[in-house]
Amino acid sequence: MKKLMRLVLVVCTVVMFAATLRPTRAAGGFPSIVTMPKQIAGGKAVTITITNKPAASDAVTLKEWTDAVNRFEKLYPNVTVNGSEYTYAPDTFAALIAGDQVPTMFQVYLTDPQKYIDMGVAADITKIVDANNLRKVYNSDIFNLAIKSNKVYGLPYGAYAMGLGYSLPLLKAAGIAKPPATWDELVKDAKTLTKRDAGVVGFSFINDGSNATGWHFTILGYTFGATPGSIIKNNGGTYTAGFGTGPMVDTLKFIKELRWTDDVLPRETLDWAGNGTALATGKAAMILMAGDQYGWIKSTYKDVDMTTIGFAPIPAGPGGAVSLVGGNMYMISSKASPEEQEAATYFELYRLFDPAEDQAVLEAQKTDNNPIIGGPALPLYTGDYQAARIKFETPYYTLPYANYSAFLDAISAGKVKLQVEPAPAGQAYYGAVGSVVTSVLNDQSVDPAAALATAAQTFQTTQLDQLATAVAK
Fold first, then answer.
1. Where are the domains of the chain?
2. Helices 426-442 and 247-256, axial angle in degrees (round to 10)
3. Which among 242, 286, 329, 453 is most buried, taking Cβ atoms within 10 Å?
4. Do 27 and 389 form a contact (C-beta atoms < 8 A)?
5. Sign of the dihedral through C-alpha 315, 316, 317, 321
6. DSSP class of residue 285?
7. pLDDT per residue rounded down to tens, the chain (473 residues)
8. Which CATH superfamily is domain 5-160+326-412 in?
9. 464-469 — which CB contacts under 8 Å span 24+ positions?
């Protein structure tokens, strides 16, 4: 999952398209950078299917989606946009591919675009992207995930990075002026913040032994110097498990110390929701969490005063401040006709970049009885353009920008390095190491180095060697 950043604005349009293209609607906010065509598909009737249509039970979001479609279809009466409630999952999407049922435009995780590019599932949309100079607008760390051999195959639309959620009242009561910038500082602060009699721990992360535990463990590992390529080593088509030695062992030793020496971690089992709940309810002073969980807290705990919850850059370890990035990207089916590909691409560009469309969505979101606007999402863009969008959108925010702006600034300034998830077999890897982390948390006698070495050997045999066999066949 990789990189929350911002964009450099390019206000120029390509002269050769001037006679056939028109700028997006002005909105008195940030600049238009995408030039929409006067016609799509030469005016011929075209129908496209787009995934991730909100369910009927989510009335406000569904209305936002439907209104956006209606506005687009009013601009282009020859285009019909059909919605599908399908939400991406690697296994179910594989079934769609096998059944030749891939929608015109579909969502994938930021970790998966290259797979679908290699499989020939995603269409090349380079011509439209480059006509609008979008390579200069998107943050390259994110946008490069959609590129192969200098061709563009996708449009990122949402991303997050990991950071440190913290309780301002608990830190203030303990005399701590700001969140820790390093793991050494965190250990010191967590000791001060842990109040067992009051049921409060200084620091928390997911610890239930699931894949999510392995995910959090890996994020910590990146700050200790691990990389996706060192965890699962690519040997030119075959793979070696590399997490049984080096930085990941150091990371597990650190976790063991947090639990058994420093005694600052929860003693109960916490999943993703439980970890967020611990922060929301004041049972954890600091937690490792994704930026998008900040809004989840407000959505789930409507009475929580979000001005009491901050979100800071991940503390730096021996490997520096490194965060795992994730998110989503829209891709276009290579099986769609050229006219359908054009319509789908411009529909997404309209949703992403039209200033008036952005304003309309923000206005619609305000009508929700518990609006969640803003939050520490990873900036997709950079430079002047991103700054202009932030300036325009900030007055709409219902989540306190001041409480997470330091995180966004650190990402935009490159003070936090962003890394993607390990691959291949990333989810299986998470499961393999997640159970090891939990064993260390539950049993003080477990040796981190030996446990990880065993897990790496098993993962090699059951996963990576099998991948090599499949490739050989």
1. 5-160+326-412, 161-324+417-472
2. 40
3. 286
4. no
5. positive
6. S
7. 333 332 222 222 222 222 233 334 444 578 999 999 999 999 999 999 999 999 999 888 899 999 999 999 999 999 999 999 999 988 899 999 999 999 999 999 988 898 899 999 999 999 999 999 999 999 888 899 999 999 999 999 989 999 999 999 999 999 999 999 999 999 999 999 999 999 999 999 999 999 999 999 999 999 999 999 999 999 988 999 999 999 999 999 999 999 999 999 999 999 999 999 999 999 999 999 999 999 999 999 999 999 999 999 999 999 999 999 888 999 999 999 999 999 999 999 999 999 999 999 999 988 888 999 999 988 889 889 988 999 999 999 999 999 999 999 998 888 999 998 898 888 899 999 999 999 999 999 999 999 999 999 999 999 999 886 554 44
8. Periplasmic binding protein-like II (3.40.190.10)
9. 464/232, 464/238, 464/239, 464/240, 464/241, 464/425, 467/238, 467/239, 467/424, 467/425, 468/237, 468/238, 468/239
192-214: buried (b, 16+ CB within 10 Å) or exposed (e) per residue?
A: bbbeeeeebbbbbbbbbbbbbbb
Paired strand residues for 239: 234
Domains 5-160+326-412 and 161-324+417-472 share a fold: yes
Reported pTM: 0.84
Query: What are the structure tokens assigned to 195, written together?
Result: 């109040």
Distance, CA of 66 to CA of 68 (rounded, Å): 5
User: Residues 215, 430: contact at Cβ < 8 Å?
Assistant: yes
The amino acid occupying position 309 is: I
